[in-house]
Amino acid sequence: MSIIKIISYLSLLALLLAPILFYADVLTGNQMNLTLLAGTVVWFASASTWINKATVEN
Amino acid sequence: MIPEAPPIPAEVHEYEREPVPASAWKDWKSFLGMYAGEHAAGTEFMIGPLFLTAGVSAFDLLVGLFLGNLLAVLSWRYLTAAVATDVRLTLYYQLEKICGRRLVTAYNLANGILFCFLAGAMITVSATAVGIPFDMEMPKLTDTTPNGLTWVIVVLAIGAVISVVAARGYDTVSKFANIASPWMVLIFLACGVVALKGLGVASFADFWNIFGEGREPFPGQIKYTFWHVVMWSWFCNAAMHIGMSDLSVFRYAKKASSGWTTAAGMYVGHYLAWISACLLYALYIRSGDAQAMLAAGEAPPVAPGPMTYQAVGVAGLITVVVAGWTTANPTIYRAGLAFQAIAPKISTPRVTMIAGAVATVAGLFPAFAMQLLDFVAVYGFILAPIGAIIVFDHYFAGKAGIIQNYAEKAGINFNVSVLLAWLISMAVFYSISAFGGVFLSFLTLPAWLACGALYLIFSKFLQKEI
Predict the structure, then answer these.
(1) pLDDT digits (tens, 9 = 90+) for B26-73
(2) Which residues of chain B have a Cβ shorter than 8 Å from any chain A Cβ?
(3) Cβ atoms B368, B121 nearer than 8 A
(4) How many helices (H) and strands (E) does chain A have?
(5) Chain A residues in contact with B197 (beta carbon < 8 A)
(6) Does B315 sit within 8 Å of A37, measured CB to CB?
(7) Which of A10, A25, A36, A50 should one mutate to test binding to chain B, selecting the residue with the greatest count of B CBs within 10 A?
(8) N- to C-terminal Cα distance for chain A?
(9) Looking at beta carbons, which residues of chain A come within 8 Å of B201?
């Protein structure tokens, strides 16, 4: 698995964990919103380099 | 989706008039991601809250949706995928064999118009997010017409962009939708978790008590019971499963068991996403503004843009715009293709622009989005009976003593038996709904069965010896 794919999956993990940590009072609302926005940017920037290639190969 | 139109895979343009060969068959994994992504769309932000406006109880929502979605999955598995892996043809070619080319044109017209209205609802959803920076007044639940100049300008701008992109760059948006799918599901989940915290949910009992035993529906809405939720969620995609639209997808499946993959779409999009959106609205109606509206006898607006922005910030706004855009785009493209089948001399970009213009005009009227539960029920009710023709012709033609694929074998362009069965079943059961006050989704299955049975009866009398 390439580095870029690992970064993509980590961004998805951040998107999954941010609201859970907010629910558990570990993150504030603003911190969660920033994490979600950052995760969004990183996901689109990284996944756009490989996800459609993987679909075509499939 | 809703009843949302699935993105068109590139391979739909292959084997359009021949069975898909074994070399092109795909295993179940190819369908899993596709269904999971397609059913987490812009309209889910509307459908979830609308259940709350219909006064559903916790049991109705959680168990009713579970059962309705299970019935939808079984319909895909044992009807759509079963027929698709037998015949391995597109819906349109299979219909042409039974009905004749001219009657398929009538089906295309109905399909195209309904797709435009559906895309219009998605444009409305996107407008509630794009309008936030302009301090736009959000449409109310009971609004049917545009509520101001800002609304008109925002909808026209979104409609123009979506139409031009659909006409010029369909592939790009299709690829973008592939990237957006997993991200969108997680943002839906985030909205649900944030709403749970806002509602003070610390246990399953707290969660259950949000909906409790249900309540009176909001002004202008009807009360949904357990069976309303079951039947509506079963038939919101009726055009795709019992209506056989997804023959075009499952003709590539190695085995009919690939039909089980639709469960990914149902339980991610039509369970998790709907409940998350429902929770967002439950949080919103506890606000002072919403309570004041309820006290005044008005229904608080269902505006996905402000609700998601309040919950998860800018990422939520992006999700509403992207969800609306990526689902409106293929819907407009499909509507264009349906219209092009009627007027083949008009180029694809031009006919897509025409479909986009119709969808944009529909998007100006919030009624399509605000009454989405009703519209989706009508959509499934109109298109599903055509699937009964295919199923009954496939399984019962021999037993009924009629000729299978009659139009093809008799060399006719118009099979009167199909038209009569479709029109009579729709007219009878729609009248029962309209004049008898019966919830339309309760009548989708009877109309479907009646259409299939009438087709066999009319064919028995009207088919000529070949």
Answers:
(1) 888 888 877 877 788 878 888 899 899 999 999 999 999 999 999 999
(2) 29-30, 175, 178-180, 182-183, 186-187, 189-190, 193-194, 196-197, 312-316, 318
(3) yes
(4) 3, 0
(5) 22-23
(6) yes
(7) A36
(8) 16
(9) none
Distance (Å) from the alpha carbon of B206 to chain A's nearest alpha carbon = 15
Mean residue pLDDT of chain B comes to: 89
Say whether B258 sits in a helix, a strand or coil: helix
Residue A1 pLDDT more than 80? no
Least Cα separation, residue A40 to chain B (angstroms): 7
- How far is Cα B29 from Cα B17, in angstroms, rounded to an integer? 25
Residues in B touching A18 (Cβ below 8 Å): 190
Looking at residue B447, its pLDDT comes to 97
Q: Which residues pair with B26 in a beta bridge?
A: B253
B338 has pLDDT over 50: yes
Contacts of A45 in chain B (CB under 8 A): none
Closest CA of chain A from B199, distance in Å: 11
The answer to pTM > 0.80 is yes
Helix/strand/coil for B16: coil
Share of chain B above pLDDT 90, in %: 57
What region does B100 belong to: left with phi over 0, alpha with psi -120 to 50, or beta?
Answer: left
Segment among B47-61, B124-138, B321-335 with least mean pLDDT: B321-335
> DSSP assignment of B38-62, as one string?
HTS-TTHHHHHHHHHHTT--HHHHH
Cβ separation of A44 and B313 shorter than 8 Å? Answer: no
Nearest 5°: phi and psi at B253? -75, 140
The answer on pLDDT for A58 being more than 80 is: no
- C-alpha B259/C-alpha B337 separation (Å) is 26
**Interaxial angle between packed helices B372-400 and B101-130, expressed in degrees from 0 to 180 and rounded to the nearest 10:** 160
